[in-house]
Design brief:
The chain is mainly alpha-helical. It has helices at about 1-25, 30-45, 50-65, 90-95, 100-110, 120-135, 145-155, 165-170, 180-185, and strands at about 75-80, 85-90, 175-180. About 30% of the residues are buried.
């Protein structure tokens, strides 16, 4: 029982640190965006890869419709509390550091994780995380509505959601999720230091 309390306390502390950092970097973020980063870190990107042809076409379309000026100044950032996955910005491709095929291959390889957690395990983890966020007493816009929306998604046995409109408008997120070990091995050596 003591170890369980200790783990929950550590998780709450990690959540507070993560959420504080996220809101400092993205002050227009809502609970939906915190949730999205956390589920990406826990569940990965498998839900985005129905087939490789669609994944390739979507990446090509996104690259064709964005400019470097549209993108955040970073090449990569960790997802969620534990940093199991990394968001790799399309900036890295647009600036010629990483080939589009290399990013796509890393993204697809990351989605092929055979040890995918269950939605039920994620829902349980999220409940602990949102409890820690509740205790932070943040003044996030639409907090109760977002919290209810997330509960509704999870109650349907789903977990994936989109960024909030506020976040999309303010930060124009264009990235792919890559498992940290794949990123470290295949992509990070290609990148210059973060701008």
């Amino acid at each position: 029982m003591m170890a369980s309390c200790s783990c929950m306390s550590m998780l709450a502390q990690d959540v507070e640190t993560f959420v504080g950092g996220l809101l400092e970097q993205y002050p227009k973020a809502r609970l939906l965006d915190i949730y999205k980063s956390c589920f990406q870190d826990y569940m990965g990107a498998e839900h985005l890869v129905n087939d490789t042809v669609s994944a390739r076409n979507y990446l090509e379309q996104e690259l064709a419709t964005t400019t470097v000026d549209d993108l955040q100044p970073w090449y990569y950032e960790p997802c969620g509390v534990e940093g199991n996955y990394v968001r790799v910005s399309l900036r890295a491709v647009k600036e010629g550091h990483i080939a589009a095929d290399a990013l796509l291959n890393a993204f697809i390889a990351s989605a092929g994780n055979a040890e995918r957690p269950t939605v039920e395990s994620w829902a349980t983890r999220w409940q602990m995380m949102v409890g820690a966020i509740d205790r932070m007493g943040l003044s996030l816009p639409y907090y109760q509505e977002d919290k209810q929306f997330i509960e509704d998604v999870l109650s349907q046995g789903k977990y994936a959601i989109s960024h909030s409109p506020d976040y999309r408008d303010a930060y124009s997120p264009h990235y792919r999720i890559v498992k940290r070990d794949i990123f470290e091995r295949d992509l990070k050596p290609l990148l210059p230091l973060q701008p």
